[in-house]
């Protein structure tokens, strides 16, 4: 994966305030659009970028979501190629974050245990989720059986034994490995907490995002009173405070440009931190964030803390509810 991280940011800010921030921190900006990737190429901009991020994070409500794409892919492998096996046997695979713990374990020991065969399994899983064909499923099963999967049977017995429930889950046209909805759901759940009242979401024009607007509109229109807790600090409650979602042109929407600064910086810093390329800039950006301003979807081998953090998780009930009510 060329870019190992994915994410998004949201900021509660109006156009006038966004314009003031940009004028204050980049008064000589010649580009028609404020873009982190362009500004960060020049070392002279780093101090201004730090100051802008500090201003946003100290004075405006915001949330930034960053995830490891490999870890998220592993979690999706657990969702579709493993969980149905346990569900059919009456076991709540998501209880107390068991799926996150197993996903973290696979992230770190998958390759040491199985060599390149682990990557081959993940690649075959992605292909089977995209193609939705019997041949692609058989190729996935072949890849699983080509490794010593009994070294971690909890993760590989379902596909090695050709579990029909897992096969049906992968073939289901409603499942995919697209991380976009995971990111959007996480942002919305946090925005619901930090918003003072009704709010709207405006995001940049993107075909990938556009296809999810109809799902978000279903969330908005859902009027049943219900709430699900997934971690000690995360929940989602209906009806939402969110009232609308719309696409905008990022070149003219300054709030979207500021969100690009936050997520661009967060992904850049995450990549440098993961590769142990620390610097004053990396450490300073990390220090800007309060715990409630950032969501990490990263592997964690502290299983006791994972269990504590996700104790009593209603993820299983939430997934079933979403499957029945949203399409």
* Sheet with the most strands, sense and barrel status: 3 strands, mixed
What's the average pLDDT?
92
Low-pLDDT runs: none
- Tell me the structural class: mainly alpha
Terminal Cα separation, in Å?
Answer: 29 Å
Strand order, largest beta sheet = 1-2-7
Radius of gyration: 21 Å
How many H/I helical runs? 16
What is the structure about, briefly put?
With 327 residues, the chain is mainly α.
Secondary structure layout plus pairing:
Elements: E1 5-11, H1 15-25, H2 36-39, H3 46-59, E2 62-68, H4 69-81, H5 83-87, H6 98-114, H7 116-131, H8 134-145, H9 153-160, H10 164-171, H11 180-194, E3 199-204, H12 207-221, E4 226-229, E5 235-238, E6 242-248, H13 254-274, H14 280-288, E7 294-297, H15 303-309, H16 315-325
Parallel strand pairs: 2-7, 3-6
Antiparallel strand pairs: 1-2, 4-5
Helix pairs in contact: 3-14, 4-6, 6-7, 7-8, 13-14
Written description of the protein model:
The chain is mainly alpha-helical and 327 residues long. It folds into two domains: 5-68 and 178-325, no CATH class; 69-171, no CATH class. Helices cover 57% and strands 12% of the residues. A three-stranded mixed sheet has the order 1-2-7. Strands 3-6 form a two-stranded parallel sheet. A two-stranded antiparallel sheet has the order 4-5. Strand 4 (226-229) and strand 5 (235-238) form a beta hairpin. Helix 4 (69-81) packs across helix 6, helix 6 crosses helix 7 (116-131) and helix 13 (254-274) crosses helix 14.
């Amino acid at each position: 994966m060329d870019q190992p991280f994915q994410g998004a940011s949201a900021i509660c800010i109006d156009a006038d305030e966004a314009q003031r921030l940009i004028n204050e921190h980049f008064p000589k900006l010649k580009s028609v659009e404020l873009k982190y990737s362009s500004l960060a190429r020049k070392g002279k901009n780093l101090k201004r970028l730090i100051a802008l991020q500090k201003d946003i994070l100290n004075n405006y409500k915001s949330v930034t979501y960053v995830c490891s794409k490999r870890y998220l892919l592993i979690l999706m492998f657990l969702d579709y190629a493993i969980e149905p096996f346990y569900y059919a046997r009456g076991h709540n695979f998501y209880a107390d974050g068991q799926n996150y713990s197993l996903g973290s374990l696979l992230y770190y020991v998958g390759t040491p245990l199985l060599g390149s065969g682990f990557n081959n399994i993940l690649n075959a899983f992605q292909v089977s989720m995209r193609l939705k064909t019997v041949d692609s499923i058989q190729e996935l099963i072949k890849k699983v059986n080509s490794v010593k999967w009994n070294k971690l049977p909890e993760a590989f017995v379902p596909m090695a034994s050709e579990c029909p429930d897992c096969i049906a889950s992968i073939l289901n046209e409603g499942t995919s490995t697209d991380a976009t909805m995971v990111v959007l759901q996480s942002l919305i759940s946090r925005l619901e907490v930090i918003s003072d009242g009704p709010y709207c979401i405006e995001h940049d024009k993107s075909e990938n995002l556009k296809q999810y607007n109809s799902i978000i509109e279903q969330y908005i229109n859902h009027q049943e009173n219900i709430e699900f807790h997934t971690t000690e600090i995360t929940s989602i409650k209906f009806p939402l405070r969110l009232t609308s979602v719309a696409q905008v042109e990022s070149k003219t929407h300054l709030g979207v440009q500021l969100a690009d600064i936050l997520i661009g910086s967060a992904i850049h810093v995450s990549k440098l931190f993961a590769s142990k390329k620390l610097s004053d800039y990396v450490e300073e950006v990390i220090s800007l964030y309060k715990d409630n301003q950032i969501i990490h979807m990263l592997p964690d081998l502290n299983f006791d803390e994972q269990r504590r953090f996700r104790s009593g998780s209603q993820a299983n009930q939430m997934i079933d509810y979403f499957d029945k009510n949203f399409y």
